[in-house]
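Researcher: I'm preparing a figure for a lab meeting and need a structural model of a single chain. I don't have an experimental structure, so a prediction will have to do for now. The sequence is pasted below. Please return the structure as tokens so I can convert it later.
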Amino acid sequence: MKRAQPTTKKETKRKITRRKKDDRLSVPLYSQKGEVIKSISLPKEIFGQKPNPPLLSQVVRAYLSRKKPPTASTKTRAEVAGGGRKPWRQKGTGRARAGSIRSPIWRGGGVVFGPKPIGKELTLPKKLRQKALAVALSGKYTEKAVTVVDKLEFSQPKTKKAQEFLKKMPIEQEKPVLLVLEERKPTTVKSFRNIEKVEVSRALDLNSLDVLKFAGLIFTQEALEKLKERFGGSDGQSD
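Model: Understood. Here is the structure written out token by token.
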């Protein structure tokens, strides 16, 4: 049997470089007109995470607990005003015993087991929230639901131009889409606000619940840079 030839340092470097190239997460970069400009690579720290349903479930519960706390509230017999005096004496009247007019069986009395505002907010550490966001974004990348645009500018608010832009993008038109910008420009926000199933958000405000709610994500290139800074400056390179 022939012995396998030992690999040189150059060959080892080539193999490592090939692996790195294969591991890169690339997406096409579109212009506002819908033309492909080039291919850019996305950071694995944000878009290359493994699925983690328990983590996403935990984070979503925490976000939903802050959405709108229950406000319905009733008073118990201890909270209803009055009723300090015994209505009538204990015996000799021929009527049932009564200790207070605020008893739950009396009209105007307290409520038994009525609704009360819980006011319980779940809190999560920053690293856990950030990890959940990366897992959610990675899931969208796996589903090929991430689109990147070089820039998105409107000289004046025009819903028609916004609709034309969406038609040129490789997204499913009937499903909800989240547009992620570097900042909320008034002309851009007003152009998209009348379009059904389309919402606008900033990269710094993005959370895992927003990502999971929408079928497609459209990032501007500057918003993607802001997202990288938020995750500690993960860098993606152009091809």
